């Protein structure tokens, strides 16, 4: 059994050695604008190839190269779509501190809200909104959060928007109290 595994491993490593140079050349052209590292893109293509290797090793070299190139191009397009979706959503996904709350466009003084009040407000969110907000605050991307909850990426964006809205509503009284104290001092 170990010999079979070692033989398959050697075959896959040889497969990588044969296809990596041409795949890397294509990846460099795709990533010319610097949005993604060509090495990462090639790695993702080989990660996709590993579970399919049983089928790929029976194909011709040209068919394997075409499969790898198509897979890598699709991964690149997925990254581009994700980046475009996230950049379109940025104006709507600003941090709570950056959003105007009043109708006259004035910024509230979110820095007046203490960490304890902020954490308490987060805990008051509905569970799915709270969990999504915490994951995003930890630095997780929308796609990772969507996979965690097994929901579409758009749902994650909606949840985060709702969480921010609810946080503003929960924190407005704290801002008003803090402002009032500041005026009286």
TrEMBL record:
SUPFAM superfamilies per UniProt: Sigma2 domain of RNA polymerase sigma factors, Sigma3 and sigma4 domains of RNA polymerase sigma factors
Coiled coil segments of this chain: none
A Gene Ontology molecular function term of the record: DNA binding
One GO biological process term: DNA-templated transcription initiation
Alphabetical keyword list: DNA-binding, Sigma factor, Transcription, Transcription regulation
Record's keyword annotation contains DNA-binding: yes
Domain of life: Bacteria
Residues that span the membrane, as ranges: none
Domain RNA polymerase sigma-70 region: 15-84
Record domain RNA polymerase sigma factor 70 region 4 type: where: 117-167
Family membership noted in the UniProt record: Belongs to the sigma-70 factor family. ECF subfamily.
Protein name: ECF subfamily RNA polymerase sigma factor
Organism: Corallococcus coralloides
Higher taxonomy: Bacteria, Pseudomonadati, Myxococcota, Myxococcia, Myxococcales
